UniProtKB/TrEMBL annotation:
Gene3D superfamilies: D-Amino Acid Oxidase, subunit A, domain 2, FAD/NAD(P)-binding domain. The chain crosses the membrane at residues 367-387. Coiled coil: none annotated. SUPFAM superfamilies: FAD/NAD(P)-binding domain. This is FAD dependent oxidoreductase family protein. The keyword Kinase does not apply. InterPro entries: FAD-dep_OxRdtase, FAD/NAD-bd_sf. GO terms for cellular component: cytoplasm. Keywords: Membrane, Transmembrane, Transmembrane helix. It comes from Clostridium scatologenes. Residues 32-384 form the FAD dependent oxidoreductase domain. Pfam families: DAO.
Amino acid sequence: MNTQYVQGDCIFTRINKSKKQYEYLTDDIDTDVIIIGGGVTGAILGYYFSKNNINCVILEKSRIGHGSTCITTALLQYELDSNAMELNKYTSIENIIKSYNLGIKALDEIQEFVDNHGNSCDFKRVDSFLYTAMKLEKKEMEEEYNIRKDSGLPVEFIDENNNPFLFDVKGGVLAKGGGAVLDPYKFTHHLIDVSCKQGLRAYENTEAIDVKYCANGVTVETVYGYKVKGKIVIAATGYNTALFTKRNFGTKTTTFNIATRPIDNIENIYKNVVIRDNKDPYNYFRTTRDNRLIIGGEDINFIPDIYNEELCNKSYEKLEQRLKSLFPNLNIEIEYRYCGAFASTQDNLGFIGKGPDNSKLWYCLGYGANGILFAVLGGMMLSKLYLGEADKDLSLFKVDRFDN
Ligand SMILES: Cc1cc2nc3c(=O)[nH]c(=O)nc-3n(C[C@H](O)[C@H](O)[C@H](O)COP(=O)(O)OP(=O)(O)OC[C@H]3O[C@@H](n4cnc5c(N)ncnc54)[C@H](O)[C@@H]3O)c2cc1C
């Protein structure tokens, strides 16, 4: 069966004019670092490696930014998919707080990129709000609030007495400046554009079909027979890692997004916050620069052949109803519906670092709902590691921290 990782009419590739096209590989070449995958993760790696004057190449089998990058909601928040007390079954509260702070660091890094290179990706730093509409879950929200407050994170507790939103909130944690939104397709292209000026070479329509490892380095064979020689290879292939390993990195689901047409009268409060509810699976939503609402969630067990129209329509329908119930005062018309593979992990963290039994194979896999922020951390930490400096927090993302 042909596994489909992305399906539907994706907002970000539709609203953006076709971005720059990159050449495909037509020669054998040498480099130091070979990044396989030209999604947002590959682009972020390319940026940090080239910024640190490390020779690097990106190989993308299709078009840059057309994998899960184009269907991501790009709702960035430092908190993780599950609440701290839930995650405490798998990891310590200390590590969870560390992850929250690393998420803030990654948000600051994107802010800095935009400040230095221009905001061509509609980046906006906003607050982040996690809430429940169920009285029974209020205590859970209070616990989450207290954990974050006690660790010094700027948070405010919201309940019926101070709820500024138009929907029902029984308890919620508002994290000041704890989130951001951006256009992931524009961001990916901007990163590669800047990186190429720093020395990165990017090739699209260039599938890596084989990787050979030897004492001196690696050789990647591409689809038309040309080879790339380097010192290490980094897997930035998202949810498809079969070229590198049989290891199963996360639990796959199929997840759904819908985006409305622009809406004139969205209240300003929704333009300055990203929102997630406490359900399982949860719904999350954000606005766009042109005043659309994007809502995501309604995950189902992973179906490799996701062109199951009936099943997909059920999830799209649920998302639409949810949006209409949250915003009964708005004229909601859905323009885009799309879905794709998503993978989560027990501790909600991605995988960053050297392969467990091959020091020339490195990974940067942004599994979990914070994939983009993990990729930023991956770019920072792996480029440092290449220069001989191991980040003390890299161990949180160890590739073999779970049994296969
Ligand atoms: C619906 C949805 C919503 C999400 N929402 C959020 C969110 O709000 N916030 C957030 O931070 N994260 C979110 N995520 C997660 C986030 O989208 C991912 O972490 C991110 O898109 C992964 O980017 P990537 O570059 O790793 O993967 P991809 O964009 O899939 O890129 C991998 C690339 O590798 C290429 N490739 C694969 N094999 C080869 C090969 N052999 N040779 C060459 N190229 C190859 C593919 O063609 C692809 O372009 C969401 C994911 C989904 C699916």
